[in-house]
Amino acid sequence: MAPVGELRLESSPETIVGGWGFEEDILTALGEADKLIAAEGNQFWFTGFYDQLPGVDVPDPDSLELVRTDDWSLRTEVLYELDPDLFATDPNRFISYYGADEGDISEINDSIGPFFGNASRRKRGDDWPTWPGGESYPYYDIPEFVSRYGALLGKSETAAAINTLYEQALQEMRSRVPPVSDRPTVGLLNAQINPGNEGFFRAYNPRTEIDKAYGKKQYRDLGVVDAFEGEYGGQSGIQVDYEALLDIDPDVLVFHFGINYRDWNGEDALRKTVEGMRDSSLGQELTAVQEDELYVGGSAYQGPIINLFQTEMLGKQLYPDEFGEWPGEITAGELPAIPEGEQLFDRDELADILAESSGGTDSQ
């Protein structure tokens, strides 16, 4: 896997450091989540979807040690104390985000454990570091990640089964998306940022320059009609106030990271954003508010399992005539379970694959 190249382990890792939720979801799919002992961040690993898969258990994200401080510095001493067998993350994130330098990463890689990961959530900036090769490196899509981690961890058969179910389910959903003329316009807003706490909303471009980027994959797969198209000026998002929202007046508002911000530092930040919009005299003029077309959005840190659930969720929110209505109230405490006859992928088949993946390696 770029950027680290080929990695071969003498034995299956017993302890793993994860990332921000994406790598954790892949490890869950491969039956390896119980080996997680630490992570770069735990706020964005949403584990609620696993509750809908019988027999699937994962660590409480809050139980994982953090490898960074609150001010985003690397906790090097903690890494030595943990002594993990594998860092399931892109080493260049440690440089870009946490102030490490290339020498630090080389020492961690040689003295503690190897890295195996690739930052493909969104386009990397021009100043993105390139340890160890010094050259830019490619992006991977979700099935490519699953295959590579599966090969490393001795779970190639499991990876193939996950990828088959995943790609078939998504292809079926994509094939049923209504024609553009029948799709609503969508405004994708940050679930936490609002005029009450920041003085503005933040609207995101649901498309990304990188086709393989996974952060907003469901919006791309389901052909979202972006209400703010042409307004971004080359940026991934823009600040908008109520007047700008009213000028655009999207048919539907989806709150990006909404599932994460339901419980953020002890408060429901999504609820505060939505209720503030409903209480505002300007917010009440928005079509999406009047028609109650306000929806919880997914996490950007989504591997194959989370992405399946979040694509299904978005399909029902935007295209209920085709996929059936999303039954959830945006300010409800729990995400709803979809009735069996209205599900867009087979939970039992997925759960069976995950059950078979738990414990040991594939027989090959």
TrEMBL record:
So which residues are the signal peptide here? none
**What keywords tag this UniProt record?**
Signal, Transport
Boundaries of every Fe/B12 periplasmic-binding domain copy:
15-326
| InterPro entries per UniProt | ABC_transptr_periplasmic_BD, Bact_iron-sidero_bind
| Chief place of localization | other
According to the lineage, what is the superkingdom?
A: Archaea
One Pfam entry name: Peripla_BP_2
The compartments listed are: Cell envelope
Q: What is this protein called?
A: Ferrichrome-binding protein
Write the lineage as a comma-separated list. Archaea, Methanobacteriati, Methanobacteriota, Stenosarchaea group, Halobacteria
